[in-house]
């Protein structure tokens, strides 16, 4: 296999890595918000429920969570949930392991939503009480105070920790290969197994590096754009 | 009728009794200074009147409207009604609490513009209404000497300038009474002068004000009435001459004497 062929073969896998990355970010980031609000809720049962969920999700290795979500429905109810997805839904579109990918996406989205929620909570709680009070004495409603005063300050504060988490996310996608999802590491292992080529495995690092480089530049720009004020 | 009536206000935080039966009144156009050592309850009484804290018992009336009635509390207060009342009073904070992401002009106009959106004619006259608010804000910012800082962000201003913005921010809503919570305590001594000058000019315009302060000579010069608070009660009350020059209570004498040079 030529270098170009290997690159193309690995790139097919990296598309899956990027798919997991994109979907997790797109669904996990908004899902983190209600979890954050629940964990700050004054209604105790809701607060503790969300704290327990965050504790479990952050307390168990992501790899194990992928196994649990993929296998447990079948073991418990004798119903191969994700197998059904494989069989009926996406096979005709040429996506071989849609069921496995779906399981991975659910696990990643839940996991990252919990991490994001803690970042949001930290950001919201770090805004001084005086900002709320200033809005309040100026006759603003609670929702105006949040939307017009608090939100942007929170965003400014959470960009650095979110950047960190987002960069971790692209590398975490490699975990998907534990249930045979054909992401880039799995593709490289495939080459090692069938063609006795070990170097493509190390070569995958270049893909991650380039993408993380791109992320660093984009997120750095965002951080800079928001640095016009100091809160 | 007094513009501000405070009757028998009590307030505890946990087991600490911060206000033990505080009563006073204020007439329109008067300037009241509240002095006293830290922990005497000065700030708490201000926060109770401004609805940032709820008193435990007593009675507060502003401009004829009941702000708080310990005997007759509404089960659930209509937030809209509470906001309407809130606008009768304005509060200037010790540490300014400007909105960091907005420039000076936006800080001053934000609340007024949000309020304007509730006007029935807002949709048709949006541009005109917002332009009027901008003009009014510039007018007030001119008075406090900040016309050249309209587009600056709070982090680019000195403490004294920030505090003047926050005074302008309160003034644009035309409160019946303007409250100051130690407006110069977070400032370098050399910057307090500019704030005191602004408050003085407001007093000359007959703006009704209540000022919690540690600036004794300023309180003496600017106020029509002085209250000395100690340990949650009003220890002494009267004209500046009465309180500063001829204090009756022993505790007041002790406190005032510390400031005599």
Overview of the molecule:
The complex is a heterodimer of chains A (231) and B (261). Chain A is mainly α and 231 residues long. Chain A has helices spanning 3-39, 44-59, 62-77, 81-90, 98-125, 129-137, 142-172, 184-195, 199-225. In chain A, helix 2 (44-59) packs across helix 5 (98-125), helix 3 (62-77) crosses helix 5 and helix 8 runs antiparallel to helix 9 (199-225). Chain A starts with a helix and ends in a 6-residue tail after the last helix. Chain B has helices at 42-49, 79-86, 104-116, 122-143, 159-171, 189-204, 216-222, 240-245, 250-257, and strands at residues 4-13, 16-26, 31-35, 57-62, 65-69, 89-92, 177-181, 209-212, 225-230, 233-238. In chain B, the strands form two sheets. Chain B has a six-stranded mixed β-sheet, with helices on both faces. Chain B has a four-stranded antiparallel β-sheet with strand order 2-1-4-5, with helices on one face. The radius of gyration of chain B is 19 Å and the shape is globular. The A-B interface holds A 128, 130-131, 133-142, 144, 148-149, 152-153, 156, 228-231 and B 50-52, 79, 83-84, 86-87, 89-91, 93, 95, 97-101, 110-111, 114-115, 153-155, 166, 169-170, 173.
The most extensive interface, with participating residues per chain, is: A-B, 23 and 29 residues
Q: How many DSSP H or I helices of chain A?
A: 9
Strand content of chain A: under 5%
Distance between the termini of chain B: 39 Å
Helical residue percent band of chain B: 25-40%
* Rg value of chain A: 21 Å
The unreliable regions of chain A are none
Percent strand of chain B equals 15-25%
Largest sheet of chain B: 6 strands, mixed
The count of β-strands of chain B is 10
């Amino acid at each position: 296999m030529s270098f170009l062929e290997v690159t193309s073969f690995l790139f097919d896998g990296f598309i899956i890595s990027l798919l997991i990355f994109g979907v997790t970010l797109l669904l996990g980031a908004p899902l983190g918000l209600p979890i954050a609000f629940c964990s700050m809720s004054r209604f105790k049962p809701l607060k503790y429920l969300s704290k327990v969920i965050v504790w479990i999700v952050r307390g168990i290795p992501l790899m194990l969570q992928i196994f649990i979500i993929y296998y447990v429905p079948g073991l418990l109810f004798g119903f191969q949930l994700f197998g059904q997805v494989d069989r009926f839904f996406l096979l005709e579109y040429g996506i071989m392991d849609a069921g496995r990918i779906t399981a991975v996406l659910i696990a990643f989205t839940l996991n990252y939503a919990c991490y994001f929620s803690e970042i949001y909570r930290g950001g919201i709680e770090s805004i001084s009480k005086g900002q709320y009070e200033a809005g309040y004495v100026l006759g603003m409603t609670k929702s105006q105070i949040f939307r017009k005063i608090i939100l942007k300050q929170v965003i400014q504060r959470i960009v650095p920790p979110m950047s960190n988490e987002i960069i971790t996310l692209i590398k975490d996608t490699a975990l998907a290969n534990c249930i045979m999802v054909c992401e880039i590491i799995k593709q490289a292992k495939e080459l090692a197994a069938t063609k006795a080529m070990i170097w493509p495995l190390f070569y995958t690092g270049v893909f991650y590096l380039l993408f993380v480089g791109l992320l660093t530049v984009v997120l750095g720009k965002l951080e800079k754009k928001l640095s016009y004020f100091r809160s | 009728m007094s513009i501000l009536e405070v009757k028998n206000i009590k307030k505890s935080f946990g087991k600490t009794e911060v206000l033990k039966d505080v009563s006073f009144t204020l007439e329109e156009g008067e300037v009241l200074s509240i002095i006293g050592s830290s922990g005497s309850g000065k700030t708490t009484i201000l926060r109770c009147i401004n609805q940032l804290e709820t008193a435990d018992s007593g009675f507060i009336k502003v401009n004829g409207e009941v702000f708080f009635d310990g005997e007759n509390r509404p089960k659930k207060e209509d937030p809209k009604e509470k906001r309407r009342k809130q606008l009768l009073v304005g509060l200037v904070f010790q540490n300014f609490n400007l909105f960091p992401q907005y420039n000076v002009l936006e800080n001053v106009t934000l609340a007024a513009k949000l309020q304007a959106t509730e006007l029935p004619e807002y949709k048709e006259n949006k541009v005109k209404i917002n332009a009027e608010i901008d003009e009014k804000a510039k007018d007030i910012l001119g008075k406090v000497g900040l016309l050249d800082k309209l587009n600056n962000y709070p982090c680019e201003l000195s403490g004294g300038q920030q505090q003047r913005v926050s005074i302008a921010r309160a003034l644009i809503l035309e409160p019946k009474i303007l409250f100051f919570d130690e407006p110069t305590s977070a400032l370098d001594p050399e910057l307090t002068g500019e704030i005191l000058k602004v408050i003085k000019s407001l007093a000359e315009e007959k703006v009704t004000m209540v000022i919690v302060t540690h600036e004794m000579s300023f309180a003496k010069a600017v106020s029509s009435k002085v209250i000395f608070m100690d340990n949650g009660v009003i220890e002494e009350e009267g004209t500046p001459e009465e309180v500063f020059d001829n204090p009756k209570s022993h505790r007041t004498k002790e406190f005032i004497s510390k400031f005599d040079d």
